[in-house]
Amino acid sequence: MIERSVEISFEFDGKNYPAFDGETIAAALLRSNVLNIRNAPSGSPRGIFCVMGACQECVVEIDGIKVEACRTSVADGLIIKRAHDV
């Protein structure tokens, strides 16, 4: 049996989600069926695409800084916002 790391929680756009310590923000959101993680300047929804940091489709905002959700580890209590104007 494969054991998971410790379960933690984080906030995305005002709602709490579960995660496992060490996984990426993108993986945690995908597991929770959150597919729209940012909006394009046109307003169209965007989400996880390449999962390696090349496409910039999964950019989110943490403490006013834009980061790639597929390359950023989630942390307990982290507050993440949907990025705009990416």
Features:
1 helix, Ubiquitin-like (UB roll)
Distance between the termini: 41 Å
Tally of DSSP β-strands: 7
Q: In which range does the helix fraction lie?
A: under 10%
| CATH homologous group name | 2Fe-2S iron-sulphur cluster binding domain, sarcosine oxidase, alpha subunit, N-terminal domain
How many individual domains?
1
Main CATH class: Alpha Beta
Rg, Cα atoms, Å:
12 Å
Largest sheet: 5 strands, mixed
Overall 3D shape: globular
**Broad structural category:** mainly beta
Brief write-up:
Helix content is 8%, strand content 33%. The protein contains 1 helix and 7 strands, in the order E-E-H-E-E-E-E-E.
Walk me through what this model shows.
It contains one helix and seven strands. The chain is mostly beta strands and 86 residues long. Strand 1 and strand 2 (15-20) form a beta hairpin. The longest helix is centred in the first third of the chain and has 7 residues, at 25-31. The mean pLDDT is 92.
